[in-house]
Amino acid sequence: VQLQESGPGLVKPSQTLSLTCTVSGGSITTSPYSWGWIRQPPGKGLEWMGAIAYSGSTYYSPSLQSRTSISRDTSKNQFTLQVTSVTPEDTAVYYCANGLHWGQGTLVTVSS
Q: 40-69: per-residue pLDDT in tens?
């Protein structure tokens, strides 16, 4: 299974960050896997943001739930992260993963 993140590398403050993870070699609807987003700000540890299960159910970190949304497009075998009202503190390397497999990560910088 391979995962690949894609999306803008630069987002302005107050805008919405949107990233897509494209999965190959496996289906995002296969039980029992969940497909998640994790981020790592510069100089800090990993932070789990949320996930979407094979069933379509979603789960979010309580600290990010009000600003985070995860959805999927099963026809494209992709799932998407959106974070609203971003600030420079949302600058991080964003990873998509299913627990066993991780994407390579993509740096998103929030700056005007």
A: 999 999 999 999 999 999 999 999 999 999
Structure-block tokens of residue 96: 């998509």
Q: Cα–Cα distance between 29 and 40 in angstroms, integer?
A: 27
pLDDT of 99 strictly over 90:
no
Query: In 3D, which of 74, 39, 75, 81 has the Cα closest to residue 54?
Result: 74
Residues making up the chain, counted from first to last: 112
* Tokens, residue 1: 């299974």
User: pLDDT digits over 67-76, tens only?
Assistant: 999 999 999 9
Do 49 and 39 form a contact (C-beta atoms < 8 A)? yes
- To which residue do tokens 């803008």 refer? 8
**3-class SS at 58?**
strand
Mean pLDDT along residues 21-33: 95
Cβ neighbours for 10, distance < 8 A, ≥ 6 positions apart: 108, 109, 110, 111
Q: Are 51 and 58 in contact (CB under 8 A)?
A: yes
